[in-house]
Amino acid sequence: MSTPTPTGQPTPGFVPPSGQPGSQPNSQQSSQQGPPNHGYAAPAGQVPQQPRTPVPQSAQTPGYGPPADYSSAPPQGFPAPQPGSAVPAAGYPAPAPAPAPPNPYAGPPAQPQPQPYGFPAPQPGFPAPQPGPGFPAPNQGFGPPSPVPSQNPHQNPHQNLGPNPFPNAKASFGAALHSEWTKIRSVRSTFWTLLVTMAITIGLGALFAFGAVQHISPGDRVDGDWPAHAMSGLFLGQLVIVVFGAMAITAEYSTGMIRTSLTSQPRRATLFWAKTLIVTLVSLAVGLICSFSSFVIASAIYSGHDIHMSLSDGDTLRAVYGGGLYLAVSALLAFGLGAVLRHTAGAITTAVGLLFVLWILVAFLPSSWRTDIAKWVPFNAGMQIITTQPTDDMLAPWTGFAVFAGYAVAAIVLGAIVMRNKDA
């Protein structure tokens, strides 16, 4: 039964179950109730009746519709239907055609050819990609060339790569020597460094020789160490030749070209000793030019003051070519330090400190210490090779030069170990 209201009337908008009193409201009540079930909840356990909205005949469900008329022209993007085929509904693509039956007379399908590096495989119906302006053609700068397909199915396709453009190229010691010589003579800094070395060594040798003959006594003409005065330009020339020795190897580390050198010559020991030999020959040639030129100029200056000097006089020849040896060993010392440090400024600073600064610092030591230490300083030991009148507190000429060369050998061996065991 319906719940009576205070006035005795049933709840507006409520439809009682069928067969119960009040299920058929009169027309007066219906006009006062408004639309059925509007704004009122149904009792528990009973689902309210929802009104149905009639669907107009003109509205169509999305994706469906009447068959389209393709008699005049097919829609854009679809082929014309064949006789007897189903017509696709509006909004749906045409069905894919059935695959063609296999041809029993056709050969095996073509195998895809390997594509060059950097270019994707062309898709069916599209042309192969072409390089644009400013870009290399396929197989140029994008990796190794694609193998030429062989007619023999059992042959390795990578065996037919065409003729070798460098049939005589070998990673030998001779090839490494040629490569290092090309580097040395093609770098502009090498030319200017060696030119400054010769200018300073020869120019200062001439100045020292000229100053030595300005105030001399009769006894000095006979007992003076005139070849050593002629070689005095080595005092500052050594500071320039160490720049050449250090940059011969540190320049490649600073620019990263050492990786290219190791790629072309994977044997590091071969590359290192080739560099060492080239630096030795170049620095020795420059040193001999400096020492003999200084001797010739100094001899001309001495002859004007009644001082005669010849290469056949005692140890004069040894002093002259000893000057070239001293410059060569100085360059090798810097080369070895450059191989250890791999830094241009660090190698040059260390070499200058050993050859020049250490010699100055030893002079400030007490006399008892200075006598025992000074003879082992690299500069004092090496410069004994250019003297014709050795002193008692210094080593003999060849002994002192051997000590000086020992410093260079130790630096080179240490540099070879570092280069062999340390990444570039």
SSE layout:
Elements: H1 27-33, H2 173-186, H3 188-212, H4 220-223, H5 226-230, H6 234-255, H7 257-264, H8 268-303, H9 316-341, H10 344-362, H11 367-373, H12 378-382, H13 397-421
Helix pairs in contact: 2-8, 3-6, 3-8, 6-8, 6-9, 6-10, 8-9, 8-13, 9-10, 9-13
Structural commentary:
Helix content is 48%, strand content 0%. The protein is mostly helical. It has a domain at 179-421. Pfam families: ABC2_membrane_4. Keywords: Membrane, Transmembrane, Transmembrane helix. The chain crosses the membrane at residues 191-213, 233-251, 272-301, 321-341, 348-369, 398-419.
Largest sheet: none
> Counting H and I runs of at least 4 residues, what is the number of helices?
13
Structural Rg: 50 Å
Mean pLDDT: 76
Shape: elongated
Biased composition (Polar residues): 151-162
Pfam family, one: ABC2_membrane_4
Protein name: ABC transporter permease
Region (Disordered): 1-169
Keywords:
424 residues, mainly alpha
Brief synopsis:
The protein is mainly α and 424 residues long.
